[in-house]
Each structure stands twice: as C-alpha cells, then as structure tokens.
Amino acid sequence: MRPPVSVPTLSRRAKVVIGSIAVLLVLFTAIGTLTNVYVDYLWFDETGYTEVFWTELQTRALLFAVAGVATGGLTALAIHLAYRFRPAFRPMSLEQQNLERYRQSLEPRRTLVLTAVAVVVGLFAGFTAQGSWETWLTFRNAVPFGQVDPQFGLDLSFFVFEYPFYRLLVSFGFAIVLLSLIGSLLTHYVFGGLRLQTPGQKLTGAAMVQLSVLLGLFVALKAVAYWLDRYSLVYSDRGGLFSGASYTDVNALLPAKTILVFAAAFCAVAFFANVVVRNFRLPAAALVLLLLSSLVIGVAYPAIVQQFVVRPSADQREAAYIERAITSTRAAYGLTDVDYVDFAQQTTGDDVDTDAALAELRADDATIPNARLLDPNVLAGTFTARQQIRNVYGFPEKLDIDRYTINGETRDYVVAVRELDSGSLSENQDTWINRHTVYTHGNGFVAAPANQVVTGQEGGEPNFTSRDLPTTGDIDVDQARIYYGELIQNGGQDVYSVVGAPEGAEPREFDRPEDGSDGEVNNTYDGEGGVAIGSFFRQLTFAIHYRERNFLLSGAVNDASKVLYVRDPRQRVEKAAPFLEVDGDPYPAVVDGRVTWILDGYTTSDAYPYAERMELGEAAADALTGTGTTALPNDQFNYIRNSVKATVDAYSGEVTLFEWDENDPVLKAYTAAFPGVVEPREAMSEELVSHVRYPEDLFKLQRDILTRYHVSNPTDFYNQNDRWAVPADPTVDTEEAQPPYYILAARAEEDGGPTFQLTSALNAFRRQNLSAFISASSDPDTYGSIQVLRLPGNTPFRGPQQVQQSFNTNDEVARDLTLFNSRDSQAVFGNLLTLPLGGNGLLYVQPLYVEGTGENSFPLLRKVLVNYGGRVGYADTLSDALDQVFGAGAGEAATDSGDTGTTPDTEEPTPPTEPTTPAEPTTPPADGGTPAPGLDAAVAELDAALQALSDAQRSGDFAAQGAALARLQAAVEAYEAAQAGGAAPPTG
C-alpha cells in the first residue's frame, strides 16, 4: 500500500507575496466600486432622486444578504452535518485507500474549505437574487387590478405581482436543496459515509437520514411547483394562434397538475418516512410512480386530447379560450376603447367619386392646409447646412415633429435644438481643456412649419421661423443654451463637462459667435445642474472615476467648478426611474420659454394572463430604427402602459416625472415603493400638456397587435381570414416596417379643427392592398383616443407600396428621376403620408427632394406627388398637384397655393447664373407654330446646369447651389417642352 501523498506547502515569502497581491486586488476593486457608487450617489443627490438610489440599493443589499446567507449558510450547514456524522471507522478497501489522501489534505483545512464554499455559493446566489429587486418591490407593494381572472377567479394582481415572486422563492429553494444535496453527497463519499465500490452497506445510517431529508425536501418543493404550474397555464402557448390557457390546458393539463401535486406530496412523505424506516425501496417506488405519473397524465394525456379532441374541431373547441385571449390582449395593450369607423363604403378602390372629393377639398380647412411637405427623417442635412453655424454644433439624424399655436393658429413644426456635437470637434479643438471645459454646450432652437417651404430664389428649403444665434423668430425662447441633449456623447459614451468659475473670473465656455464679427461670446454656467467638485476629495473622486489626472492638475478645475454628466435626456430618465422603459424618441419643446426635452415612460410586465407576448425592441423596430437597433431592450412583455411623462430641462438638467396614466396598477406599485418620485398629473402646466405627443414606440406595438386582435369573433380570429399587416416602407429597398407619422389633420366623424395625431396605414395580410388606417390623438382633450378606419374588405384600395409604384412608373416622374439621379445629384423620396379625405377616400401626399452627392450637399424640395383613387398629380407645389388630380381650383386649400415664405433674411439673395443661350431649333414644329428649341440645345443646357450645380456643391456655396437648382429646374422644363414640340419657357 502506497503512503498518502502530502500536499506541498508554500514558503513564508510566497505566502506574503500572494497575500499582498490579493490584498491589492481587493483594495483596487473596492476603491473602484465604492468610487462608482459614490459618483452615482452624487448624481442622484444633484437631481433630487436620492429616494430611488437608497431604495434600490437597500433592496438589492437585502436580497443579496438574504439569498447569500440562506444559500451559502444552508449549503455549508448540510456539508458540516455530513462531516459531523461521518463514520469513525471505515473498511480500508481500495476505494477508501485512494480517498485517504484527500481526507488528509482536507482535514487540517476543513474550516477554511467550508467557509470558502459558503462564501462562493453565497456570493453567486446573492448576485443572482439582487437582480430581482423589482420583483420583490412590486410583490411588497402590490395593488389590485380590480379585474378577475376567468379561470381561477383571482385578481390579476396575483399573476402580475405575486406569482413571479413565488416562482423566485421556489427557484431558490430548489437551488439550495440541490447544492446541499451535492455537497452532502461529496462529503459523505470522501469521508466514508457513502461507499460506492465497497462490499456491503453503501450508506451509513446518518448519510441515509440526511439524504432522505434532502430528497424529501426536493420532492416537496416539486409539489409546490406543480401547484404553481396550475396558474402558469394562463401563459400557455399551446393554442398557437393565441396566448393563455387552451381547451387542452383547462380540461386535461389542469387536472393532471392537481393530481401530480398529491403524487409529489406522497413521494415527499415517503422520503421523510425513510428517516425511520431507513429503506430506500419505498421512496424509490414512490419516485418512480411520480415520474410515470408526470409522463402519462402530465404529457401523454394532454397530447392525446390535443390531437384527437381539439384538432378536428379546434375553431369550436377553442372559441371560449380565444375570446379570453382577445379580451385580455386588448386590455394589456390599452386597446379596449378603439373606435372603429367603416370608411369609404361608397367607393370601390380606384373607382372614386372625384366630384365629391373636390367638394371635400374646397370645404376642407384642417387636413389639406396642414399637409406636411417637410420630412423630419430626411432634412437633418438641410438643417445642418442652413443652421449649424459652427462645426461644434450639430443636429440629430432624425428631427422631430411638434405643434405650436402662433397668433391663434396651430401648426405642426419640424423642430430641433442646435446641440453640442462632441464628435465633430476638429483635431486642434480635441484637447481635454477644449472638450471638457470650453465646448460644453449647444445653443439655439430651430423650427420650420412642416407645411411650408421657402419660395424665394433658392426654393425648396424649410421656412425657418425660429433660427440663428441668438435664437429669433415666432417661438419665444428665453433660455436657449443646451447643456443636456442627445448628441453630447462620444462613441456612445457620455461626455462630461467641467463648468463654473469664481465670481469675477473671465468666462471660458464657448457660447456662440459674436454678432457682426468673427469673434465669439463666452459664458459661465450658472444653472442648478451639475455636481460641485470644489473640494480636493471630490476632485480626487472624479479623477479616479474618469481616470483623468486633470481633475487634480488643471487650473480649469477650481473651487466653483461643477461636473455635468449623464447628459443624455433618455439616460437621465432611465437612471432617475429604473422601473420605467423609456421611449426611444425624446423631443425638444419650448415650454415657458425654456427648451425642455419631453420623454415617454412605460411600465411593463410579462405576467399579464392570457395576453400575447411580444419582444419589446423587435416590435418597436421599423425602417428608421432598423431591426434590433431600437432604444428599447428586446425583453419579452405582454402588458404596457404609457404611465409617465418625463421632462428634462436642457439647461439645468432637472428631471421631472409626471403620472400620466392614473389608473395603472403597476405604476401605483412603484410609486408606493418610491414615494414622492412621480408627481401627480395636475402638476403639469397647461403649456407642457399642449406639447405631449402620443409615443411612437407604444403606437407601433399597438398597431402590430391590432393587425390580429381587431377581430372579435373567435372563429374568424382562428381562421385568420381578416388579418392585417404593417406595410413595408415604400421609400427604402428593405422590407422593414413603414414608420408611423405625426400629422395635423381632421379625424373622421369628429367635429372641430385639426387634430395632432400619430398615424399609420395597414395592409391586408400578405397583400399590398390597404385594409385600414389607424390614428392616435395627441390633443389634450382627446389624448390616447385610437381610431381605426376600416376600408371595405372586397375593394382593391391601393396600399403604400402600390402608390409608390404608381409614382415611380409615371412618365413625368420617371423622366425626372433619371435627371435627378445623376453623377452629381440624387432623388430622395420623403415620407408617404396617408390623409383621410372626408368620408370618401384616402389622399396620399409625398414630397420629392433632390440632394447633391458632394460633401456639403443637402436635400431641397423639388416636387410634390399626390395620389387619389389611382390618379397621380406631380408638380412643383401641392396646390398644382391637387389641381392635376381634381381639376382647377382644387389646390386652393393647400398652404403653398400662394406665397408661403421668403428667402431668409440672414443672407442676401444671389442672382442665378446666366444660362447658356439655347441654339436655334433644328426642325420646325409639325403644326407650324412657334419654333421650339432643339433637343440638342435643351440637352446641352441640362448638362451645363448640372455642371453648375456640381461646382456650387464642391465650393460649399449654398446660395449658388440654390441658384443652380433653379437653373436645373428651368432646363428640365425646357427639355420637356422641346420633347413636346411646343414653345420652351425661358431657362433663366
């Protein structure tokens, strides 16, 4: 027999070195962690949300401690008991001889090993448990829904608030028992209580008792799990087309789960009885019986019922359960009060009554005058070119739509703020001093009426009615500095700024260019935002946090300095309210003279019974966001409410949360957990309420649900014979969903003026024909009112892609597209808007822009396209396009029927370049009329105009670009006239 091999010991020096390294690692980790926590606390203290910080921290710490101590402690206790009752004498078989070396190694270190096991297991359990802090808070602060589940007769709060917590407890119970069982088995094996290869008895009495108790606890927990499984049937997906308990679940699986509860309980009693009987035959037989029962009545029987009872007549068997799913899904997504309107019932697709439509047009004073010609998703380049002013400023790629009432008239505007764009700093500007202490903020609010363009010499530009620096225009802005915005980041990372200076010190922050010169105006931040870092300790804290020594060495950091960080409005709201999901599109509004970011916060749950589950981020994706790139996480959910409206002051960074949905039980649970964090709805000012919008992400989820759940009859729902689909965006080459659009227009069967609403068209499933038009009101009086215009199901109304195709194949459009899509320019289709016209049909309006391919190019509006009942209008203005479709005078209601703007007074108009004189016609017209210029001359003038446009784009001369585009338009008209054989209009 070989003697046991001893474990080599470390030298004293090695122990000191290893211990020092371990201490340093722990120290650096602790300093980094504590610094991050302290910086977080300072942010919460600055914003006034310390209640959130302490409540979340305390809840996480409580769950960490309870789960860690329970899991680690009970596992260690089980191991200790296994060691404590180890056999004093062991038969020295070959198996035991091989284990002896391990026993000798563990024996002197057993306390250390046991402590290490408890700590490691406890840490893993604690870190896992603390992530469920919201589950605990909602369980502790649960409020009733006031609605009863139709199957079990329980208030829905049980499923949303209590059931997830019970499941969490059972999961940790299983984990503790399994870890204890594994630890006990290993300990008994090593110390001889379990002898697998030794003849005779395999288990000592103590080992048998302990393992019987642990296995009994495991099976008892399984009985509890079976009982909870009964309630989980309300989330079943067995029905396929619908969610929730199906016929098979209720009539086969529910009784089976109840039987298995008693079978598992009997099995647990058998294991506990083995403490006295000490014979594994009875518990083993009970366990086999439980396994067979779970297979036969828990799996096989429901499968037989599903296959032979349900499937042959599923539409009838599942009718009652489909009805439950329809009702619950509509309630979960806020779709119980949708107003369905049978629209255009007297028309048959393209066979529309244009005379009736013309009468509607002439009487219209809400929809056509507000038809939007500016696409906020296209014009970021135009805003940048005309209003950027300095390279340190920028505009987001997607602009926003809001409405303002000026001189008693409400209009929708394309709006943006001139933010600091840290990524556009030049190399000589990109130093620590410049990035963090000089270029600290943006400046200015820019707005242009969405239904107007400048009709001056350059043409096709937004009519900026609020513009320039300092901001001037018809929207009064008292504080236009933007210290908090969407662009103040670098590579996705938040960019901090160090602001503030002692009284009397010279301002160092760049504010704006000086009026009338090449100088600049500097500023010192005096707002309430930011964390003071006047003390050495604070400076050291931020130096460690940002790993930046300049906090300690730079003269720009002084006793009056503050640090502004977490400056993205969305990130600020998410941090202040971690229980909310925040809409991906914050938008700026001028409220009481201050630029304010307005955001929408959602409360969600994945535990609403019978409601269809969706992937949050996937459902909110469209052609603008791209698949998988939405701001919302791609988590599963089946309940959502726009429960909170949040604001972030662009100057001070102040975050305010307002209770918007006062009936949301989920928000009530969170407000009970975080008292005082969410202010009542009455605290919102009237001006703020006038700027709230129905949120895009929520609307996209709801329209997706409505494609299936607008059907009320269970049989029709099962047959899917009236299913809708969100159309693909016709302006891009992908199959991604068309985004919804904000419009200011009249609503069907509603009196009054125009309503600011979010809209979308819906097609028939897997068809390009239009089936419905959905809109959600943003007006304060009717906010959240969802209206669905249902078109006749047997008529071929054109959908967005078919309308786009009718535009692309139109002879005039196709010819112009060939000219616009050249080496030096490209055509850009704007959003295809669907506008209900009275009760007769739908009018499609789409702007067409032309953008140069040069570095400094930007899109300008060149044409407007209109489609009504298959008739296409294509002209320079909406007014002319409507005349083409409906006849002369139809376009008088359009805003651009007259002069809709002038060349901005910030620049002097530049006369157009003198065009090349056309050559004489080579052949006379066939009808003997006035000769038209020859095609060769017209083509030559087109080439010259395109060359002039290219030269202007390369030079960056915006005025020359406008003149060149005007010349190009004239050349196109001359070319068309030459082709037609008529008199050519002048090309100058």
Features:
about 1000 residues, alpha+beta, six-stranded mixed sheet, five-stranded antiparallel sheet, 27 helices, globular
Description:
It is a single chain. The chain has 988 residues and is an alpha+beta fold. Strands 1, 25, 26, 27, 28 and 29 form a 6-stranded mixed β-sheet that branches.
The rounded distance between the terminal residues' Cα atoms is: 111 Å
* Range of strand content: 15-25%
Biggest β-sheet description = 6 strands, mixed
- Specify the number of helices: 27
Shape: globular
Question: Low-confidence stretches at least 5 residues in length (pLDDT < 50)?
Answer: 899-933, 982-988
Structural class: alpha+beta
Short description:
With 988 residues, the chain is an alpha+beta fold.
SSE arrangement:
Blueprint: H1 12-47, H2 50-84, H3 94-106, H4 110-130, H5 133-140, H6 156-190, H7 205-232, H8 247-277, H9 281-310, H10 314-317, H11 319-332, E1 339-342, H12 354-363, H13 380-387, E2 393-394, E3 400-406, E4 409-417, E5 419-420, H14 432-438, E6 442-443, E7 445-449, E8 466-467, E9 472-473, E10 481-482, E11 489-490, E12 493-494, E13 497-499, E14 509-513, E15 520-523, E16 531-532, H15 536-546, H16 550-553, E17 562-564, H17 569-576, E18 581-582, E19 587-591, E20 594-605, E21 614-615, H18 616-619, E22 636-637, E23 639-649, E24 655-659, H19 665-673, H20 686-689, H21 696-709, H22 714-719, E25 724-725, E26 741-745, E27 755-764, E28 770-777, E29 786-790, H23 800-808, H24 811-820, E30 825-829, E31 833-837, E32 841-852, E33 860-868, E34 871-875, H25 878-886, H26 935-955, H27 958-980
Parallel strand pairs: 1-29
Antiparallel strand pairs: 2-5, 3-4, 4-7, 6-10, 8-9, 11-12, 13-17, 14-15, 16-17, 18-20, 19-20, 20-23, 21-22, 23-24, 25-27, 26-27, 27-28, 28-29, 30-32, 31-32, 32-33, 33-34
